[in-house]
Amino acid sequence: MLVYYILSGGHHPFGEDVDCEYNISQGRYSLEHLDDDVVAKDLVEWMINENPNERPTVEQTLTHPFFWTDERRVRYLKILGNEEEAENCRNADEELLNAIAKHAERKSFYEWKSKLPAELVQKLDGKKKPYPENTLGLLRFIRNLHEHYPEDAENINLMASFPDLFGSVFRFAKEREWNSRPSLKKFFSSAPQI
């Protein structure tokens, strides 16, 4: 509740005054004051979980993506871009594409090719069949950009270009339980930073 209070500028997830205790007992809350910050909402929801055994420890809280640097978030996106689903972005399963599209609606990375330098998109598209303009295509593009064109990658600030990409992809990967895969699980451990 304290984290939400700080992030929301003085609001309580369970409401004010008399309503607060009743809402806590009913497990009713609202995170409306966090706007569209899905990563902050994810952290707060985990911390106020009705079941105390399912709440994070301090160590788990501190390794939550809310506290990651932009550099770590980009590394996570690059690893996602190397997962089989993103590698197969040109022939992805329809169900998967529909599921991930729900996380892309009205987001900054919709029609992502038009928001990156045209010459860079052409350079990477020219190597194979063009990347599809969906989220899996963008993840694979990010992976290949950083893997094969590191100098070009340094000139692109992904977090500024697509401010809601990380949160949307993180939530999708969490729902699909991709974050428990060995390639991604290390990002969520209390071991030294990756």
Write out key terms for the chains shown.
single chain; 194 residues; mainly alpha; de novo design (two linked rop proteins); 2 domains; 52% helix; 0% strand; elongated
Please give a structural write-up:
The protein is elongated. It folds into 2 domains: 2-65, no CATH class; 69-188, KEN domain (de novo design (two linked rop proteins), Up-down Bundle), CATH 1.20.1440. The chain contains 13 helices and no strands. With 194 residues, it is mostly helical. It has helices spanning 2-8, 17-26, 38-47, 58-62, 70-80, 84-87, 94-101, 118-125, 135-148, 150-154, 158-161, 165-175, 182-185. Helix 5 (70-80) packs across helix 9. Helices cover 52% and strands 0% of the residues.
Helix residue percentage: 40-55%
- Class from helix and strand fractions: mainly alpha
> Which regions are unreliable across 5 or more consecutive residues at pLDDT < 50?
none
Spatial gap, N to C terminus: 29 Å
Oligomer: single chain
